[in-house]
Amino acid sequence: PVMDAFNKAYPNEKKCHWGKDSIDYQVSFFTGKAPVSVTYNATGKRIITELQIPVEDLPQTVTDYVQKNYPGEIFQDVVQITNAEGVITYEVQVKDMALVFDAKGNCIFK
Fold first, then answer.
1. Among 6, 23, 24, 77, which is most buried by a count of CB atoms within 10 Å?
2. Structure pTM?
3. How far is CA 46 from the centre of its chain?
């Protein structure tokens, strides 16, 4: 069921790296130049999708928050996360910390 779900969602992706933890399956691949990671449960339900994005694609409120609270720090990693319900959050690595923002750019975890 996992392969069927993946092939249905991403029919053109052939160069993939598959992994499995004790419960879930994870597949990593590139869409264009951006790395993507998708996690499925054993029944093939997509649990989470993580897409690395450029800083420019963040909501302006996220950029403003980081620049205000961590002046001079560099965005080390920026990921758009979509859960199974379609809710989008953003994770930004700054100064060895992961900051999480909701889709509107409000910091919900640091």
1. 6
2. 0.89
3. 13
